[in-house]
Amino acid sequence: MYAFEDGDGLVVRSVAGAFRIDPRHDATMRRVLPRLDGAHDLSALLGGEPAAAAFYVLRMLGWFAQSGLLVARPRIPAARIAPEPVARDVPLLWLPGRGALADALAGALARTGLAVAGRGGLDEAPPAGAVRVTCLDGPDLDHLDAAARAARAEGAAWFPVFPFGDAVMVGPLAVPESGPCPRCVLLRWLGISPTIALERAYHDHLRQGGWRLHPPVPRPEAADLADDLARAVCAGLGGPRSGGWATLLHRGGGDCEAGPVERHPLCPDCRAATASPPDDRRDAWFDAPLPLASLGARLRDLAAGPGALTRLVPPPRGRASARDPALPAVAVGRFAVPDPAIVTGRQTTWCHGSGACLDEARTVALIEGLERYAGLHPGEHGLVAPYEAVADRALRPTDLPLFSPAQYAEPDFPFRPFDPAEPLGWVPGYDLSRDRPVLVPRTAARYGVDDRLLGETSSGVAAHSARGAALLNGALELVERDAFMIHWLHRLSPPRIDRETIASAASRAMLDAVAAGGYAVHLRDLTTDLRIPVCLAVGTRTDRAAPALIVGAGAALDAATALARAARELYAATLHVTGAWRLGDPLEPGAVLEIDDHAKAYEHPDWLPQAAFLWASLAPAAAEGWRAPARTPVPTPVPTSLAPADDLTALMARLAERGHSLVGVDITPPELARRSLRVVRAIVPGLQPLGFGRRIRLGGRRLYEAPPRMGAGTFAQSEDALNPVPHCFP
């Protein structure tokens, strides 16, 4: 661990994460931290400290241990993983410098059979063709940037090795014209950090000269690390991974993280093209996808190493048991944020997956994480032009829809009305219903884009190995959210689905597990005039032992699969509740501004009456399909069908009955396209979008046209009659 000051106080940092210290206990932690060396017991650590301070220290030590900042075992001797001789042609390594780490590494590399030169001093000039190795004794990030640029300017390959707090970063190999560089790997590392804002503060601290405060690696430790480092250097120089492989070697435990590193879209030196080229062929949207296992095998290395784009983590201990073989396996991960600067405080970067087995669940979690990463990816800026200049080939923003005149008139409303003469960013999409390319507002395609036009969410973004399969999932998600928002805004009570008549054993098992965990389970038919089945699954409780309300929803072309998807989401919601959960004070409606606020509000039973109309109806659902077996026994976000083209065609036909088209935008970053993953934003102009806080868009016609077509007897006929209460959709 390493402690440093930033503008807001003391931060304790490790490669496992970082914590900000409560200013009230700053002095106590400064006394305790130097004693965390394995030689002091609790009495020595806390002797003489006031009770409140000692309790705080114990709590922080618990968090440190849970997060991996404390290691209660000696370092595994490096000799057990000594590098094997290199059986391939590797060019000369030029390794100048006389620091402890450089000396130890040079000796270990020589023992592998590699030719190492440059030990005479920094004044010697490296010979042509040599790989320049910069091995530092401290994390001088600016020095690394300068060395990388100098090597690039001279057309030389370059390889970094440097201490990075309680670890050593090895690689990646920077090859002229191909990257990546140290800044790429540090941006990747920052994006996958569990504490991005504090990790960014650490990087800033180093660049402001704080690296000088890091004690250099002692020579005995350097000697102990040398063989591990040499092995990592050989891996970074080798074979097909050349130019994109890095290892983070933990100094305290003998463990390492190794994996590929892609060029980062925000790196000023290695910035790569960040969007797939548009494909104007209709057939490109109807390709057959890969089987899930094959896709997972191609993506798995993206979850490894310091440059990971997503990372699987042990799932929290939930209140529902996952040991019943009828229940799906569940996996949990975190996804990387492509632009770490957007994270300024608490981050929500979790991704989840479920499947028939743990491998399938992990693959689904990995795909969901990469989908979120792609949605936040900055992409190419593309064309910038006013709508009036591209109207003949562009999607009109007001058709999405946008906000209402009354919303724009609200004081301090954060969005502005659409002006057809104002320049907008556009990205290429494809209108499958009209069979033609179409320009789409960039802010409608990427939900990480800062905009004042519509404030898009992740709804409609999906990933698969084929565009059509991803588009199908994304479009069904839009149908699901449209159905929920129409029911919520009009306070419509949907008909009841009888749990006892469900044919699917998997769906029954998941719902039974939710009920066994203390929830009353409510199933409702949210299907609208689109005639695409939508199911809402709700769990409620008032005992304050867990969140008062949890929600799952699903849409599909058959009712039983929609129900199965809703049941899976509801079951997964119970697994996310850990023993550390505590009920907070009820939120005021005006405090519900962001996506997390909506779920947090309905954790409190005081909010249940606001949503009770959703499960109040006793009228039975009419469709017999709710009782049929689901086509997909264990539903996942990734269709298991290898022929989704028929489903996509059927979906477009049902949308067309109500005058809606289907537009797809491929937002796949190049690092995912190379591994056969496609990430697509589905857009169905006119559907009612999901929104949070003040970002609920009320400017569309469908909001008022759908309820009478659905046969609703009572519904809001004007905006001021709509439900003003924040919704419960998570």
TrEMBL record:
<feature type="domain" description="YcaO">
    <location>
        <begin position="353"/>
        <end position="730"/>
    </location>
</feature>
<dbReference type="Pfam" id="PF02624">
    <property type="entry name" value="YcaO"/>
</dbReference>
<dbReference type="InterPro" id="IPR003776">
    <property type="entry name" value="YcaO-like_dom"/>
</dbReference>
<dbReference type="InterPro" id="IPR027624">
    <property type="entry name" value="TOMM_cyclo_SagD"/>
</dbReference>
<dbReference type="InterPro" id="IPR022291">
    <property type="entry name" value="Bacteriocin_synth_cyclodeHase"/>
</dbReference>
<protein>
    <recommendedName>
        <fullName>YcaO domain-containing protein</fullName>
    </recommendedName>
</protein>
